[in-house]
Amino acid sequence: MLFPPSLMRQRGQALVFSLITVSIILLVMVSMYTMGQQSIAKMKLQNTADAAAYSAVMAEARDYNFSAYTNRAIIANQVAVAQVVGLTSWARNYSATYNGPASWLPQTLASMGGPLAKILWEVPVKVYKPASKTFGNVMNSAGPITVKALDILIDVLSVAQTVYHYATILTVAQTIGLSPAAVLDKIAGIDTSDSAVGDLLSFNDSYNIVKLNDPNAQLSTPGVVAALIHLVQWYSFTEKKDPNTTNKDGLQGDRMARVTIDSLDGFSQNRSTKNGGPANNFPEMMYLTPFVVDPTRFIPYQIGAALMYLWHRGGTELKLNAGKKKTWSAMDATGFFGLQMFWISILGIPIPIPIPFPFIPMGWGAAQAGETSNLNANNNFGTTAANAYGGVYDNVNTAGAAAIQRGKGAGSTMNTKSGLRTYFDIKKVDKDALTGPALIVEVEKGDGSIPTSNAVSGGQFTLTNGTQSGYMRALSKANVYFARPSKLWKRADNKTELGSLYSPYWQVRLAPSGFGEQFASMTYHLW
Fold first, then answer.
1. HSE of 266 in the Cβ direction (CA atoms, 13 Å)?
2. How far apart (Å, rounded) are the C-alpha atoms in residues 216 and 177?
3. What is the torsion angle, in degrees rounded to the nearest 10, for the CA atoms of residue 49, residue 55, residue 56 and residue 57?
4. Are 330 and 368 within 8 A, CB to CB?
5. How far apart are CA 4 and CA 471, in angstroms?
6. What is the DSSP letter of 119?
7. CB-hemisphere CA count at 13 Å for 134?
8. Where would I find the beta strands (DSSP E) of 370-461?
9. What is the pLDDT of residue 101?
10. Angle at which helices 13-99 and 255-262 pack, to 10 degrees?
């Protein structure tokens, strides 16, 4: 078939157009592949930085919460020590009340009374005498053993708190790959990758979150510097506090002491009869003392005990002893009050003559767990004796017995190593602490590990990836914050609780990187 000459001259034009079109499509596809690989690598690197920052700060939050739990456990065991010391003091007083040198007086008055007085007083006393003596002997033997065991447990908790706290530094460094080898390589410029020393100074990558997420990624030089700065800030955020040091333990100088005192149960704080009277003696303080009112003695010419009861005061105090250590001491004292009724006749009219027996010291007891006896008449670092040991010094009915006990001292200590221990808390508790120091993590990876069109096309369609200095980088920021969920654990006073290592409400969050961090990173790498 023959074609006109004009048609013959147009053959081959479509081929040129097709070649150009295919070339453009290939370039677009190669560019899309390169950009896609870069986007995937960038997202993966950002996820790596986020995971490393979040995981490292999570270790710090666990340390704060562990300190909070152990502080609570230490306080609970200190309260248990106070309970044992108080119970021992109460048992000694209980035994002395019914077996001491003054126990003859109420028994004599009861024997002089009528049948009702004898029944109400002598029958219980016959039971209480051996029971109180046995209970006093048991507490004298078991009390010191129990206190020593509790103090050992407190020491174990304190040591565990310290070990866990300092081990957290290693955990954070290992999580983000901040090994000594990385520091020497990034900061000092020492290449340790091919030496045995480098292997020795490197952490196991099995715990390196950066390597677990991206084997080709590592901390950048600014990332290493930022991590070192963070560890210094984290170390300075909390400190080991000594609750026995005056005015160096937070608010008003006695933070741990006051929290411990506020945690005491009612029996430890005050073992006194309610309102100083005997009617509520048994239900309030479990003190088995008889209370006698014999109405038959008010019948004319009936002589004998008309009123008899024991007046008790007692409590446990945490005091600063002579060894400059806050330790436990307890005192209990019992005073007797009696009313003997006599009658005389004047012109045949019976006249009652009450003969009181007030303020008679009956029983006294004390116990201590610490270095020296410390029965001073002040209440929990206060200046008055109004509430010391349940008001034992301030009450006329028990002051005599308290004076006798104070002169004797508390006796041998239940444990010379007892008392408040050092513990961890936020360094500046007087400030509104709600967040911990932020951790900034910058990771990088070489562009040689990112698939590009150069690898696919064998170098025919090479496109640069645009990375700075041949590295792709990602920046992440995380911090610990304190928040007590009001819907779950609402405070009775409806106030916002500030951060401390007494409550385990420390949590973790990722935070947006600020302009300063981004600018510092860009400036360093451009420079």
1. 7
2. 12
3. 110
4. yes
5. 62
6. I
7. 5
8. 423-426, 439-446
9. 82
10. 70
Distance CA 468, CA 481 (A): 34
Tokens coding 207? 């715990």
Predicted local confidence at residue 300, as pLDDT: 84
Contact criterion met (CB below 8 Å) for 311 and 336: yes
Sheet with 471-482, side-by-side order of all strands: 218-219, 439-446, 471-482, 506-510
CA distance 76 to 502: 12
Tokens coding 65: 């919460």
Every domain of the chain and the residues it spans: 16-527
Ranges of H-type helices in 249-396: 255-262, 266-269, 281-285
Encoded amino acid at 509, one letter: R
pTM over 0.85: no
Return the structure tokens found at 122. Answer: 């002598």
> Which has the closest alpha carbon to 356: 342, 337, 373?
337
Q: Which two tokens stand for residue 215?
A: 């084997």
Q: Copy the structure tokens of residue 204.
A: 């196991």
d(CA 502, CA 250) in angstroms, rounded, equals 12
Rounded Cα distance, 527 and 281, in Å: 82
Distance CA 4, CA 13 (A): 17
Asked if 406 and 374 count as a contact pair (C-beta separation under 8 A), the reply is no
CA–CA gap between residue 49 and residue 19 (Å, rounded): 44
CA distances from 284 to 280, 288, 389, 510 (A): 6, 11, 16, 53
Instruction: Report the alpha-carbon distance of residue 12 to residue 266 in Å, rounded.
Output: 105
In this structure, the chain runs to a length of: 527
pLDDT value for 184: 74
Alpha helices in 387-478 (DSSP H): 399-408, 453-457
Alpha carbons 169 and 179: distance in angstroms, whole number: 11
User: What is the distance of C-alpha 396 from the center of its chain?
Assistant: 41
Q: What is the rounded distance in angstroms from the CA atom of residue 150 to the CA atom of residue 142? A: 12
d(CA 26, CA 377): 94
Contacts of 367 (CB under 8 A, 6+ apart): 85, 86, 88, 89, 92, 143, 329, 330, 410, 411, 414
pLDDT digits (tens, 9 = 90+) for 377-401: 776 666 567 778 888 888 888 888 9
Torsion angle in degrees (nearest 10) through CA of 385, 388, 389, 391: 50
- Please list the ranges in the chain whose pLDDT falls under 70: 1-17, 26-35, 37, 113, 188-189, 191-202, 246-253, 273-292, 321-323, 371-374, 379-384, 429-433, 449-469, 527
Residues 163-186 as b or e (16 or more Cβ within 10 Å = b): ebbeebbebbbbbbbbbebbbbbb
H helix and E strand count, the chain = 15, 10
Give residue 155's identity as a one-letter amino acid code: D
Residue of 313, 333, 319 lying closest to 378 (CA atoms): 319
Would you say 159 and 167 are in contact if contact means Cβ atoms under 8 Å apart? no
Here the tokens at position 79 are 């309260």
| Cα-based distances in Å from 401 to 86, 307, 366, 514 | 17, 21, 11, 69
Neighbours of 159 (CB within 10 A): 12
